[in-house]
Amino acid sequence: MNDNQHKEQTDRIHDLNQQIDQLSNENSENKRLIEDLKTALSKDTSEDDKLAELMKQVEAINHKLTEKENQQDELKRRIGELEDENHALGIQLQKNDNKIQENYDDMEKMQNKINDLEDQIKNKDAEIEAKN
């Protein structure tokens, strides 16, 4: 091997070593990027897990809200029934009050008749007493 060939081979080895170093650096950079991606993906997964948990909580809250709305609707329905019953009772109460007033008026008329009859009896007694 002559000097010229040796120099070429040395240069070639040097170039290959530089390429190896460059590839090694690129490989290290790629490994770092892969680790960064893994970290980012695990954070994304963690964020996805958090989002999934939040979605579950939202679904649970929506379910409870639906239950509360159903309860509210049931209470409104029951209130409507009670208002109808109350209205019917109010009508019945008014009828009862009217009947009581009629009875009171009838009782007053009877008392007046009784008073008139007592007066008639007294007058008859006075007439009979006067004839005797």
What does this structure look like?
The longest helix is centred in the middle third of the chain and has 129 residues, at 3-131. The protein has one helix at residues 3-131. Helices cover 98% and strands 0% of the residues. The N and C termini lie far apart (187 Å). By secondary structure, the chain is an all-alpha fold. The chain is rod-shaped. It contains 1 helix and no strands.
Output the number of helix runs: 1
Radius of gyration: 55 Å
Computed structural class: mainly alpha
Helix content: over 70%
Unreliable sequence segments: none
Q: Bin the strand percentage.
A: under 5%
H-E string = H
Shape: rod-shaped
The largest sheet is: none
Total number of beta strands: 0
Give the overall average pLDDT. 88
CA distance, first residue to last residue: 187 Å
Layout of strands and helices, then pairs:
Blueprint: H1 3-131
How would you summarize this macromolecular structure in one to three sentences?
The chain has 132 residues and is mostly helical. It contains one helix and no strands. Helix content is 98%, strand content 0%.
Q: Which features does this protein show?
A:
1 helix; mainly alpha; rod-shaped; 98% helix
